[in-house]
Design a protein that fits this description.
Elements lengths: L1 E4 L4 E4 L26 E4 L4 E8 L6 E6 L2 E2 L2 E2 L8 E7 L13 E11 L2 E9 L11 E7 L9 E4 L7 E2 L1
Antiparallel strand pairs: 1-2, 3-12, 4-5, 4-11, 5-10, 6-7, 8-9, 8-11, 9-10, 12-13
């Protein structure tokens, strides 16, 4: 159906299906779809990183978590800062299968930052915090001193207070 919108005085085409054989030009294209996640989603100044490897030694008081610095040709910036609170939680792992994963939790202080790593304190952490592991998704969830980095938003559908937006 093609018609003139009387409010905007613009032409509108509403089609069930369109196939273009050679070329199409769009000034603006908006794709509408539905998506979902399970669990929590955190929006914060540093966002999150995926830990690709962890290095630790008995004589140092931190875990060095290495991160990707490039993906699909794009450089990835490490936006974590010293004093950030690093948070990781996995709570729906099916334990006892071949991949040897388990439900995990930690909230640790970031004590060092480099281009391709963050250092997480072994001792300055929440009670019963697990040690970081490769493939952890680590989110920034506040900062000890910098008030501009203490803000974050959390959308949850799984905790005792869910559903919640914090």
């Amino acid at each position: 159906m093609i018609y003139l919108d009387k409010l905007t005085n613009k032409t509108v085409a509403e089609l069930d299906k369109i196939y273009v054989r050679v070329k199409a030009y769009f000034e603006q294209l908006e794709i509408v779809n539905v998506n979902s996640i399970g669990g929590k989603q955190i929006i914060s100044p540093a966002g999150s990183i995926r830990c690709k490897a962890v290095e630790t030694k008995d004589d140092i008081d931190y875990y060095r978590c290495y991160i990707l610095t490039e993906q699909d040709g794009d450089k990835i910036e490490n936006r974590f800062k010293v004093g950030d609170q690093a948070y990781c939680q996995m709570f729906n792992a099916k334990e006892g299968v071949e991949n040897k994963i388990s439900n995990r939790y930690y909230w640790r202080l970031v004590v060092g930052v480099g281009e391709d790593y963050i250092d997480l304190s072994k001792s300055d952490c929440d009670t019963n915090s697990d040690a970081p592991m490769a493939n952890d998704i680590i989110c920034q969830r506040g900062n000890r001193d910098d008030i501009d980095r203490q803000n974050f938003m959390e959308f949850s559908s799984v905790d005792s207070f869910s559903p919640s937006i914090t």
